User: Which sequence fits this backbone?
């Protein structure tokens, strides 16, 4: 679907789907949005708008890294939106000229819809020109990163503050799932940050130089987002190490318990084994109180070993 919007020289906003209308003498500038276009509609990038074949190729062959290309009469931006459910990157392409802006995306973009609503509610924004629309699109798409990261932060805080009733395996799975989500976000945010850094540090048109402060604001947002991602990755690493240490300590306690039990039963098993051989020349077998005597010896051995283990500090691990 292609949507056309145009601002006339006398300040009127036109909204129709006729591309031919955009070349009228009374049109000051226009915005054309390619929303999930068909192959026939994609061909208009060359046949009607006459964009450079390389920039058209970048639109068709997705997913390109965020970048900025300068052509003779327009700037070509590749930026990334984020799918709120899958966290996958979705490419949005912008052609920004002196009197036009063309947005192109194979996925429906809530961010562009939001910008369109803002422009509909405040017609004064149209007077700022296509450069400002490009800024609004970038700023809106970047702002949509924040809710995703805040949800991940909330999940991490819940795990960190949990009472550990979940099993070790469940907790580790949650931590590694979050770490995977952060890696997806990092692959989107860092290239976008590099793109905005380039925009701020190259010589472009006078109009865009005047908007440098606006782009600087987007860059600051991306710096903050990158910092949040790194902080959360560090937090997942700390949680992973903490759970691994906790699990290791639990395993040590279990092994110590089994060792103590096994050590206590070694002499008991030896005594029971000796008197279980039933040789005829074992005089103790015929004692009237031999059974109780041997039980007493076993009890004394157990008590003595427990006293010795406590003296050596073996039970300190259970405190």
Assistant:
């Amino acid at each position: 679907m292609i949507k056309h919007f145009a601002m006339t020289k006398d300040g009127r906003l036109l909204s129709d789907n006729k591309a031919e209308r955009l070349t009228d003498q009374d049109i000051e500038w226009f915005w054309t949005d390619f929303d999930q276009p068909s192959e026939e509609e994609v061909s208009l990038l060359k046949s009607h708008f006459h964009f450079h074949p390389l920039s058209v190729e970048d639109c068709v062959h997705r997913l390109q890294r965020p970048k900025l290309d300068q052509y003779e009469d327009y700037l070509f931006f590749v930026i990334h939106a984020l799918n709120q459910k899958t966290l996958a990157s979705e490419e949005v392409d912008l052609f920004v000229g002196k009197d036009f802006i063309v947005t192109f995306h194979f996925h429906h973009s809530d961010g562009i819809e939001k910008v369109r609503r803002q422009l509909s509610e405040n017609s004064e924004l149209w007077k700022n020109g296509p450069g400002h629309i490009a800024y609004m699109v970038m700023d809106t798409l970047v702002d949509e990163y924040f809710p995703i990261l805040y949800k991940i932060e909330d999940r991490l805080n819940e795990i960190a503050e949990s009472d550990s009733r979940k099993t070790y395996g469940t907790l580790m799975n949650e931590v590694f799932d979050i770490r995977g989500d952060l890696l997806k976000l990092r692959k989107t945010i860092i290239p976008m940050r590099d793109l905005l850094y380039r925009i701020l540090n190259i010589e472009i048109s006078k109009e865009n130089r005047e908007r440098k402060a606006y782009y600087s604001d987007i860059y600051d947002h991306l710096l903050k987002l990158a910092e949040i991602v790194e902080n959360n990755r560090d937090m997942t690493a700390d949680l992973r190490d903490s759970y691994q240490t906790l699990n290791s300590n639990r395993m040590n306690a279990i092994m110590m318990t089994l060792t103590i039990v096994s050590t206590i039963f070694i002499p008991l098993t030896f005594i029971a084994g000796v008197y279980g051989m039933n040789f005829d020349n074992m005089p103790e077998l015929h004692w009237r109180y031999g059974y109780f005597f041997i039980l007493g010896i076993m009890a004394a051995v157990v008590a003595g070993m427990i006293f010795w283990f406590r003296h050596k500090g073996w039970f300190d691990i259970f405190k």
User: Anything to note?
Assistant: The radius of gyration is 36 Å.
